[in-house]
Amino acid sequence: MSFVVRCLDCGHAAPYFPSSVNCPRCNSQWREAEYEYSTLEDFIPDQLSARPFDLWRYRELLPIRNPNPSLSLGEGGSPLIRAVNLGMMLGIPNLFIKDERQGPTGSFKDRQAAVTIAALKEAGITEMVAASTGNVAIAYSAYAARAGIKLWAFVTSLVPAVKMREIALYGSQVIKVTASYDQAKQLAAEFARQRNLYLDIGARTITSIEAMKTIAFEISEQLTILLGPPANGAPQRWRTPDWYVQAVSGGMGPLGVYKGFRELRQMGLVDRIPAIAPIQAEGCAPMVTSWKKGLEQAEPVNTPRTHIETLATGNPGRAYTLLRKQVNETSGVFESATDEETYRAMHVLAKMEGVSVEPAAGVAFAGLFKLVRAGVIKPTDVVVVNCTGHTMPAEPYILGDNWSRNVVLPSRAEDKPQDGLLAALSSVAPDRFSRVVIVDDSPESRRLIRRILQSQGDFQIQEAPDGKTGLELIQKEPPDLIILDLMMPEMDGFAVLDVLKARPETAEIPVIVASAKELTPEEKNRLAGQIQALMQKGDFLNDEFLDEVRSLIR
Ligand SMILES: *Cc1c(COP(=O)(O)O)cnc(C)c1O
Ligand SMILES: [Zn+2]
Fold first, then answer.
1. Is residue 519 exposed (0-12), middle (13-18) or buried (19+ Cβ within 10 Å)?
2. Ligand nearest to the CA of 8
3. Which residues are near ligand 1 (CB < 6 Å)?
4. Best mutation site among 97, 99, 101, 107 for ligand 1, i.e. most ligand atoms within 8 A of its Cβ?
5. Burial 53-76 (b: 16+ CB within 10 A, else e)
6. 80-99+213-397: CATH architecture
């Protein structure tokens, strides 16, 4: 496939060589790959069905002349997971997680490394230098090992030691720099210049942007399968989400994803580009603050104040200016989240979706929660959050101290070993759990409430799919708490409440009403004095719900 590298400043087109990073005419380093899209229009989708679901299925749109399968670790092709529980809690049913944790080294940097190392190998380059906050160096190291390329990895001393060791394990040379990430980058650049080595230049690297754009291709293909093709008669063939949400440091991810959607639009496969929502850690959010101030150039943050080192790019430079244009053009937003909000979001995500992420990825979810609460992301929107990296090891901050119950068994065999076991187990859980009855006609809502309760304590939970069954359950054995839906066919929640309150055996049982819809003032009046708490969508994200449950049961 023929392609050129087009200068973003002077428009000059030149052939691509990984080692020549400047425009031959104006010396700019801001350039991008350009393909003959018109000839690809019909070609790409028809070829795809016969190809494996990995990044190389889009090889005609990647800047590699001869993809080399022996370098591959199975990069790309990550699942797009529907976040059913989280979507319900937030009131956005079409919430999807692009699970980049499943890349070969556990982060979306694998795409960047796979394509860049392939290009370097093709160009005969055998040594390279990169500055990293961890994941880039891990990904490059793995692919460099396969390709026979030596990597000098400049990492800041704040990078977790497990990540540094992984870089070293792959045979790369780790250089630990006690300074900011921006300073580590300068040091790496100087080292590369002195030795005349290939230097990774972050978001300006042609292959990195090209690699990231495959995320957009995959999302469009996957959404088309999950949600069905666009409406009959629509000219485009693939689907675009309404939002692409990602935690951002230097901005390479969203820049690449935007380009991916732009190319799909050029080829007529989609009709629009999603709103882009880059989320930064509040303690190092130069893009967010500059965007909110309406600045075209980023004001650097010289001293990042976040524990989330992966996102500690204080000076995004021109990447911000480019990304700002794209965010504005797509009616997107820049948002930030504190470390605290991030840890909470990570915990909710793990408990509700079984997805454990590293803090840098958690930032995207904390940002998502904020944007939904603020009404920026609407209930009908199709939202894709990039889950950029895996928790390894699990973050100690999140769980606090009481996350395990410890059992010590007597070491020597006793006369009655059974007694020892039973005594030990009595410390694991109380003999009697508080009984909670959930009356709700939606199986998804029942599952959500069950999940929230069971992830946070010891409850015996019973479910009833309608008012009548609920009353029977409650009357047979009065529970400690009732969680009641209002809108149910035949016997609704109001009618259930009337019966409960009319009978002395059930009149005193605390009731929490959980409602998917906003109640009218009249409805609220009818409930007054009858129930202990009213919970609506979104409230479930707060710890309030559980606090309420606990206080009512005690
Ligand atoms: C690198 C990284 C980011 C930020 O990505 P950019 O698009 O380069 O800003 C987010 N999350 C994780 C896990 C990362 O490794
Ligand atoms: Zn130029």
1. middle
2. 2
3. 107, 109, 135, 247-253, 310, 358, 360-361, 388-389
4. 107
5. ebbbbbeebbbbeeeeeebbbebb
6. 3-Layer(aba) Sandwich (3.40)
Q: Is the pLDDT of residue 311 over 70?
A: yes
How close is the Cα of 54 to the center of ligand 2, in Å? 33
What SS3 state is found at 97? strand
123 and 17 Cβ atoms separated by less than 8 Å: yes
In eight-state DSSP terms, residue 441 is S
Tokens 């989330």, located at residue: 308
Give the position, in ligand 1's atom list, of the atom nearest the Cα of 357.
13
Residue in this structure with the two tokens 């909470």, named with its chain if needed: 344
Which residue intervals of 302-380 are DSSP H helices?
Answer: 318-329, 339-353, 359-373
* SS3 label, residue 26: coil
Architecture of domain 432-553: 3-Layer(aba) Sandwich (3.40)
| Ligand 1 centroid to residue 387 C-alpha, Å | 10
- Which atom belonging to ligand 1 lies closest to the Cα atom of 134? 15
pLDDT digits (tens, 9 = 90+) for 464-517: 999 999 999 999 999 999 999 999 999 999 999 999 999 999 999 999 998 877
Reduced to 3 states, what is the DSSP secondary structure of residue 60?
helix
Give span(s): CATH 3.40.50.2300, the chain.
Answer: 432-553
Give tens-digit pLDDT for 151-209. Answer: 999 999 989 899 999 999 999 999 999 999 999 999 999 999 999 999 999 999 999 99
Cross-strand pairs, 279 = 247, 335
The residue type at 259: K
Q: Say whether 130 sits in a helix, a strand or coil.
A: strand
The closest ligand to the CA of 203 turns out to be 1
Q: How far is residue 247's CA from residue 278's CA, in Å, rounded to a whole number?
A: 6
CATH 3.40.50.1100 intervals, the chain: 80-99+213-397
Rounded to the nearest whole angstrom, what is the distance from the C-alpha of residue 116 to the centroid of ligand 2? Answer: 22
Q: Whose CA is nearest to atom 15 of ligand 1?
A: 135
The DSSP letter of residue 377 is S
